[in-house]
Here is the input.
Amino acid sequence: MNRVLVTGGAGFIGSHVVDSLIETEHEVIVVDDLSRGRRRNVNPKARFYRIDIRKEELASIFTHERPEYVNHHAAHVDLRRSLEDPLHDASVNILVTGAEDEIS
Here is the structure.
């Protein structure tokens, strides 16, 4: 059994990933700000934190929960907004994952 943190775990795809992980006996932590997802989608066997993944509080969740894996589904998917404000899009989809360290 692994401890898995799923970002966006209250959304359509993320909640199905959470359900599958729980069915295969993994311990699951869900982080979602509920801007697009719904609380009712979160499996009751998962621990749920309602926060924006770009906030500093995420570090304390990692410290407290100590996940072995992260499954990232908290993505900004509005194509129009991504063209109008690419920095916002990147802040949710790329920068929060630490990928900027790999790019630089």
Summary: The chain has five helices and four strands. Residues 3-76 form a domain with the Rossmann fold fold (CATH 3.40.50.720).
